[in-house]
From TrEMBL:
GO terms for biological process: isopentenyl diphosphate biosynthetic process, methylerythritol 4-phosphate pathway; terpenoid biosynthetic process. The keyword Kinase applies. The lineage of its organism: Bacteria, Pseudomonadati, Pseudomonadota, Alphaproteobacteria, Rhodobacterales. This is 4-diphosphocytidyl-2-C-methyl-D-erythritol kinase. ATP binds at residues 89-99. It catalyses: 4-CDP-2-C-methyl-D-erythritol + ATP = 4-CDP-2-C-methyl-D-erythritol 2-phosphate + ADP + H(+). Residues 67-119 form the GHMP kinase N-terminal domain. It comes from Thalassovita mediterranea. The active site is at 11, 126. It comes from the Bacteria. The gene is ispE.
Length: 269
């Protein structure tokens, strides 16, 4: 029986503008999303229905039918043995569960030849963008995804090891209707792109900081490493800093190692 291996990369919202709210409570988003060169690792084989989890962040990940990779198999209508090597913190704003689900869906699509219903949206608003796992604009509640070419960005990701539930952060928004992103000019080199991103927002940052004030400390620590831009991703608590090159990102990550926080230097694409 063929076994496939895949990477479920961390998802980073470089910008996240909340522009409205639907009648069902879901929020309308305008977001520029990129993916790291690191993440969870999955192995998938059709046949026996089984999930095993290990890896440095495997503790506490649910093994039952509510795990998003099991829900991915159920959505595809197949039984599969899936092994998940967990490297990303959960409930962290970097789409750990959503990226796992998308990776499982891609592998199950390849193994079965079946189409993925609705790009996996039913498993979570972040799953459609995680299906393409490359730089994209994400709009609607997450279902409207358009790939975009960006220069690679050198980054450090920092999570203070506090879980932040997404729905609570959306509920804490002071305003549900905020300005959309302006159009991104074509072909910006990295330095200009970073300036453009700096002029945008993550509207979920203030309510996430209210829920977990340590996020302010993470942003301040990243600023102190000389990052060109610091911001929170998604609903938090993971924050990122952007740097001009890989050496400066690696040095910044090294200088944050003593914090006890989860720290990763990476390239975003
Ligand atoms: C914050 C983001 O990570 C930005 O990329 C996503 O919008 C959240 O994606 P996700 O975690 O896959 O979200 P889901 O699992 O679908 O939803 C979790 C909860 O977040 C809220 N939610 C999510 C997406 C959205 N567009 N509006 C919302 O209000 C809802 O309360 C929902 O019950
Ligand atoms: N494969 C999985 N990995 C991690 N958590 C999972 C998984 N499947 C289900 N969960 C559950 O989902 C919850 C949210 O985890 P996830 O990493 O998807 O969240 P997130 O940080 O909200 O992502 P986002 O960037 O979409 O906000 C966890 O607390 C966990 O109980």
């Amino acid at each position: 029986m063929t076994a496939l291996q895949g990477l479920a990369p961390a998802k980073i919202n470089l910008t996240l503008h909340v522009t409205g709210q639907r009648d069902d409570g879901y929020h309308l988003l305008d977001s520029l999303v990129v993916f790291a060169d690191m993440g969870d690792r999955l192995t998938c084989k059709l046949g026996e229905d089984r999930l095993t989890v290990d890896g440095p962040m495997g503790q506490g990940v649910p093994l039952g039918p509510d795990n998003l990779v099991r829900r991915a198999a159920a959505l595809m209508g197949v039984e599969a043995a899936i092994h998940l090597e967990k490297h990303l913190p959960a409930a962290a704003g970097i789409g750990g569960g959503s990226s796992d689900a998308a990776c499982a869906l891609r592998m199950l699509r390849e193994l079965t030849g079946k189409e993925v219903p609705d790009q996996g949206l039913g498993l979570g608003a972040d799953v459609p963008v995680c299906m393409i796992a490359r730089a994209a604009f994400m709009r609607g509640i997450g279902e409207d995804v358009t790939a975009v070419d960006l220069p690679p960005l050198h980054a450090v990701l920092v999570n203070p090891r506090v879980a932040v539930p997404t729905s609570a952060v959306f509920s804490g928004l002071a305003s549900k209707v905020n300005p959309a992103m302006p159009p991104l000019p074509d072909g910006l080199p990295a330095a200009d792109l970073i300036q453009w991103i700096a002029a945008q927002r993550n509207d979920l940052e203030p309510p996430a900081i209210t829920a977990q004030p340590v996020i302010s400390d993470v942003l301040a620590a990243l600023r102190q490493t000389g990052a060109q831009l610091t911001r929170m991703s998604g609903s938090g608590a993971t924050c990122f800093g952007l740097y001009p090159d890989a050496k400066r990102a690696a040095d910044a990550a090294q200088s944050l190692q003593h914090s006890g926080w989860w720290v990763a230097a990476t390239v975003l694409r």
